[in-house]
Amino acid sequence: MSELFRTHLYEEHVKLGAKIVPFAGWDMPVQYTSVKDEVLAVRTKLGVFDVSHMGEFFVEGKEAEKFVDHLVTNDIATAPMGKAIYSPLCREDGTVIDDLIVYKLAPGRIMICVNASNIEKDFSWMKSKHLGFDCSLTNLSSVFSLLALQGPEAFNTLKMLIPTLPDLEYYSVFESANGSQPLIMARTGYTGEDGFEIFGTHQTIKELWKKFMELGVTPCGLAARDVLRLEVCYPLYGHELNDQLNPYDAGLGWTVKTSKINFIGKNELANKSHKYKLVKLILDKGIPREGYPVLNSQNEKVGEVTSGTMSVALNKGICLARIEIDKVPKDEVFSIDIRNKFYPAQLLKKPFITGGHK
Question: What is the model's pTM?
């Protein structure tokens, strides 16, 4: 077994008594106090996550926007400068390599944040498509650490520490500096609440973490992060997305801009075909978990849970489930097989809760 990586805040997590678990090749804090306390801190006040395991690529040069627009399904070329854009990264056959965020920092300067488990895969893919574009592609994942500051008090708290921070629109990015060190702040996050993802050098992020702790910001782990993202129905690569699915299978058709002149996978994705439908289910009793069978009113299996948990906000079991498109029940009646016992599950059209993001 290969040795796990550790973020530059690892010792800080240990000092705080965090429970450390392996995740995507890293030793990561899964929780500090309780998942409930950490989730409530983010929903009502403020929490901070160390997500330095994520990857950062930079594309710079005359055709930076053109190259990235070619790589991903969403519209990069016409998006305004200073915008952050969520998008799948697809193969020619339309299957998803990863989901990522593109940040238009300045003309000819783009940052891409990718999932930790896919850093090498994504970079190799992008490199293989780079020929013929007048721009550079650099993997700076080892240079940057990343904090996610999430919750209603995020802006006021960060503004105290970074006075030049503007009141950004949601999914916008601001590039500043901490002395001579680069600092990139995006009004994004994985919780549904207002917040910022803060990219900086390892030393800068360590200093910010220390200041957040002094201000009483609640440190949060991966378990709370998973509950928070599931409550607002954000997909997770390896669960709602994988190498066999296209964006339509995961309910991400809105990210596929077939009006673009061209992008990798356009020919396949233009027909909008999909094999699955992603649905939101809530239970009065029972906690659904990944892999549990989803049944119709005749107790026939029609799909399976991709992500499931007990919602802190609702105190009920919630899940996302992948249903075979030709088995979606017309009566919209579902149940979930939890250890050979069938629990009724109500279909929801909207996310389980509405976050408070800007």
Answer: 0.97
Residue 327 lies in a domain: no
The residue segments making up the domain with residue 193 are 5-54+142-231
Cβ atoms 101, 86 nearer than 8 A: yes
CA distance 233 to 250: 11
192 is a domain residue: yes
> Distances from the Cα of 21 to the Cαs of 26, 30, 205, 222, 235, in angstroms?
8, 6, 21, 9, 21
The span from the first CA to the last CA of the chain, in angstroms, equals 43
- Tokens at 325, concatenated: 């498109």
Q: Last residue of a domain, which of 126, 155, 187?
A: 126
pLDDT band at 2 (very low <50, low <70, confident <90, very high): low
Reference 167, options 177, 149, 182, 154; nearest CA is 154
CB 220 within 8 A of CB 33: no
Number of domains in the chain: 2
Q: How many CB atoms lie within 10 A of CB 268?
A: 16
Distance CA 146, CA 148 (A): 7
Query: What are the tens digits of pLDDT across the range 212-266?
Result: 999 999 999 999 999 999 999 999 999 999 999 999 999 999 999 999 999 999 9
Tell me whether residue 81 is in a domain: yes
Q: Tokens representing 302?
A: 């029609």
Q: Are 281 and 352 in contact (CB under 8 A)?
A: no
308-345 burial, b at 16+ Cβ within 10 Å, e below that, comes to bbbbbbeeebbbbbbbeeeebbeeeebbbbbeeeebeb
Q: Which phi and psi (to 5°) does residue 87 adopt?
A: -160, 145
Tokens of 138: 């650099």
pLDDT, tens digit (0-9, with 9 covering 90-100), for 168-226:
999 999 998 767 788 999 999 999 999 999 999 999 999 999 999 999 999 999 999 99
